[in-house]
User: Fold this.
Amino acid sequence: MDEKAYQQEIARLKQENQELRAEVERLKRLLEEALRAGKRQAAPFSRRDPKAHPQKPGRKAGSRYGRACRRPIPQQVDEVIDVPLPEKCPRCGSGVEETGVRSQYQTEIPPPRVEQIEFRIHQGCCPKCGRQVEGRHPRQTSQAVGSAAAQLGPRAVALATQLNKGLGLPYGKVAEVLEQGWGLKVSRSGLCRAIARVGARAAPTYQALVERIRSEPSVTPDETGWKVAARLWWMWVFASARLTVYAILPGRGFEQAALVLGAEFRGFLTRDGWGVYRQFEQAFHQSCLAHLLRRCREMIEVEGSGAASLPRRVQAILKAALALRDRREQGRIGERGLAVAQGQLEARLDRELDRRWRAPANCRLAGHLARERQALFTFLSCPGMEATNWRAEQAIRPMVIARKLWGGSRTQAGAQTQSILVSVIQTCRQQNRPVLPVFERLLCSPHPTPINLLAPAPR
Assistant:
């Protein structure tokens, strides 16, 4: 083979090698997307493999029975029903002699009944200033009369709001529940307008929650897609141990995050690797280790044995950091020993990041870890700081389910109502506070006034 043909063959092989490398990278990306899509399915899935020898389901006998619980006997009985003996024995047909009486208790829902209430509003005029004055009952939700005189009561609207925003039922199913459960007929559009009124009344309470979240010592943010008028917006969530604030906003940048959290937030911020969160420069950052461990696990499944060396080493370092945290919480290591062990883990990670990696996936992982380097082990230096963003993940899960059921919001006003009401509902859940009385109180208030959801509920 002459020199010219030899060079042509080398060029052909190089071109073929580049094409094959590009094809391998394309197939790896497709595999990564398939793995992620498999974890995002709507159907229930198992996080781990089935046990080889599972235990028999149900209660165990003897000391392994567990905690014994039973429904308590009611302190007040509203109705007593006497259950007499049958005249004859059902087995042999002979007479039966009574030997005693035992009691059984049922806690039952009374038959549904819709109350039709008429408010006879007395009107008058002030003789001094000439102003028209009307009476108002605490159970009224508005002063509307005429064509708007027939309205839904506060309990009905509060229940509809909880079913729609708290449990994710569409308006049609909420109307079906009200009609079948209580005989209350209402249209979907009527429910939409009524729930929008609750959102307007709860707006000051929502603003108070926004102000509170900015002063919380530790906040966990997250975001997910949300359609508004068939366009992509973003559902933001900012969760702390005491309250949660949702916001549906048209972007996914720092400007939108700062609208809720404030650009000068100074507390702990436990977040995923989205670069926007790093712009909160005055906060103490902790990058979610669960996201990083999941990324390492997926890389190990996709890459070959050689290219998977970095994710395996990073996985071992992060798991060692979590084990170190557990030792600290169990009191098995002192402050000096914790500092030494943390320094060793950081040195191990720095050595891995100083190496030059050839595989593109390893280069991307190393670059991400380098950007997040100062936020990987903050939870070891700050007791009480979470190592993962589980709180925001749990808070955003109901919104993901609602998005799958009915898609999102049709208007910007509907998105604002959604943000307000789900924030109130989730905060009430965190405070172990019933939300229906909160909605009733908001509806019956003459003017929209904020309610302190962190204060004890009135008895």
In short: The longest strand covers residues 218-228. The radius of gyration is 31 Å. The CA atoms of residues 255 and 263 lie 8 Å apart. The first helix runs from residue 3 to 39.
